[in-house]
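Proteins fold reproducibly. Look at a sample protein:
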Amino acid sequence: MTTTTTTRLRRALRREIPSTVGLLADEQDFAAMRRYRTFAFEDHPTYLQEVEALLKALARQGTHTTVALFDPDEYASYCAETGLDPDHPTSRSRFTDHLATTGARVTYTGQPLTVLLPELVDTAVRRATWEYATTVLATAGDCPDCGLDLGRDAFDRATRLLLGLLDGAGAGTHHLVCSVPASGDHLIAVLHTTRDDHGTSHHDPTTATEFTAVLAAGLVLASPGGLVLRATRPGRPDRLHGWRLADGTLGPLTEAEVFAAYCTDARTGEPLPPEHGVDHRAGFPLAPDPHAHHPGHP
């Protein structure tokens, strides 16, 4: 076999080996890695430029590449658990390989980092939200009176509530946001859906499952959260509806409450001008759930 043939075959084989690139998304994470002597970069902008150049080079070679979020705290824990020296390039390589199957990651398709970075961070937030919500549901326990699995029951209830919301919103494009306070933070889930004139909703099933899980976690936790729905249909003003999540139930807000929520600066409490072409509406009533298990009142 000639040298040229060997080189050609190796290049062909290299194209069939997937690659994962660990990315430090922000200045804070980058600064944390600067404490390691073997970490070669001195500033985050230069680091990002070099990462983007690497991604483009891999794409030119035909390599399938995913980008994973590199978290310095998780890296330090991983090294401690596996006995690796964190101040060594091989350790960073092994952790990146670990992220290929366990971490938040997106596929590189040639998009600039200004697009890829927000997508990667959003993926990480969604993953963490999903993991927290499913943990809440899995550890909710059983109803002390009837033995019902409270987590599964809450998910079933949340599914029925979501169907009721989409039915009540009617045809059009809908944007739903559910916010649930949990452990000093907020779980936030977003769902975009389109409902045709025949009553069929079209949305990403994974996103719908994540949204349902967060709503279900709010029901289990009895958190004082909320849900808003923005309905859009061509030729008509957008409609904003709102509901209050409390004591394991979802109850409609009044029109005045919806207006106040959207027309008040959450940081300062100062009034904001209403958005042009938007109607603030009360949350429409949802069918009562005869099988609801309220926290503390099964």
Observations:
- The first helix runs from residue 3 to 15.
- The longest strand covers residues 172-182.
- The radius of gyration is 24 Å.
- Residues 15 and 61 are 6 Å apart (CA to CA).
